[in-house]
Amino acid sequence: MNLVIQGPSITLRHVETLAKMTGAAGFARLGGSAFRLTDIRDREGVVAYCDGAELDFGFVAPEAKLADIRLVAFDMDSTVITIECVDELGALAGKKDEVAAITAAAMRGDMAFGESLRRRVALLAGLNEKALKQVYEERLQLTEGVEQLMARLKVLGAFTLLVSGGFTYFTDRLKKRLGFDRATSNTLEIVRRRLTGRLKGELLDAAGKAAAVREAREKLKLHRDQILAIGDGANDIPMMAEAGTSIAYRAKPLVREKATYCLNYVGLDGVLNLFP
User: Fold this and answer.
1) Is the pTM of this model over 0.85?
2) pLDDT at 251 over 90
3) Are 147 and 134 in contact (CB under 8 A)?
4) Which residues pair with 37 in a beta bridge?
5) What is the pLDDT of residues 3-25, one digit of tens each?
């Protein structure tokens, strides 16, 4: 087994300490902030050391290759982008604290996602539809490394799926901007250019996100071990369970416990270091 370690503050001393701790046969630099330790013999103390040094780590099979992943499913809010779009809409409606508190409860798993989304959307009733454009153009930022990861996946020919409990206004634009093969999310109801506080059509919740991954898997005739899912909140756990490999990105504790790997300090391009 190999050990991949990465982080903005990584030093050669960190690498040498972990090499000695694990009995690694050797190590190689993967980039400015990442190293691979090869043929490790001992894992004891690695988790505590990396947590203390603020390093992301992963025990990775030597044969693991990104090229073997044929379907990659991404969450949107706080994963592909740095914001929670519904929270920013709440801010423009003058209800940011109320909306953000419900979002936080849902992401921790303290509230069912469907209930939380309906309550948050209801708080947006009366908001002018121009607020959607304002959030997209003025507040939405791409997560560090997502463009590099998407470019590599495109070269490898992997099918990319953006599956979000958020809103089609944002997923449709990000699909085009980043080149996702498919995007699926919820649609806000708008009447006379104002949000009604309701959704149109079937609500896409945690179960719906998992179903979207299964549908793509079946259509592409893939095995579970050919799927990678990346998310951050409790509503991503069922989707991540559909994948052979899952990554918790800057995620809540409950999500980190369920994931194959966690990225807490590096960007999404850290995925490329885990799988050469």
Assistant:
1) yes
2) yes
3) no
4) 3, 27
5) 999 999 999 999 999 999 999 99
Residues with a catalytic annotation lie at 75, 77
Q: What is the pLDDT of residues 90-109, one digit of tens each?
A: 999 999 999 999 988 888 88
Tell me which amino acid residue 249 is: Y
Is the separation of the CB atoms in 50 and 5 below 8 Å?
A: yes
Task: Tell me the domains of the chain and their CATH numbers.
Answer: 2-63 (3.30.70), 68-274 (3.40.50.1000)
Distance of alpha carbon 271 from alpha carbon 276, whole angstroms? 9
| One-letter amino acid of 253 | P
pLDDT score at 112: 87
Q: What is the secondary structure of the chain as a DSSP string?
A: -EEEEE-TT--HHHHHHHHHHHT-SEEEEEETTEEEEES----TTHHHHHHHHT-EEEEE-TT--GGG--EEEE-IIIIIBSS-HHHHHHHHTT-HHHHHHHHHHHHHTSS-HHHHHHHHHHTTTT-BTHHHHHIIIII--BPTTHHHHHHHHHHHT-EEEEEEEEEHHHHHHHHHHHT-SEEEEEEEEEETTEEEEEEESS---HHHHHHHHHHHHHHHT--GGGEEEEE-SGGGHHHHHTSSEEEEES--HHHHHH-SEEESSS-TTHHHHH--
Q: Which of 116, 107, 113 is nearest to 233 (CA)?
A: 107
Residue with tokens 């070269």: 155
Whole-number Cα distances in Å, 221 to 75, 217, 218, 226: 22, 6, 5, 10
The CA radius of gyration of the chain, in Å to the nearest whole number, is: 20
| Burial of residue 141, with CB atoms counted within 10 A of its CB: 0-12 exposed, 13-18 middle, 19 or more buried | exposed
Kindly tell me the sign of the dihedral angle through the C-alpha atoms of 241, 247, 251, 255: positive
Per-residue pLDDT for 31 more than 90? no
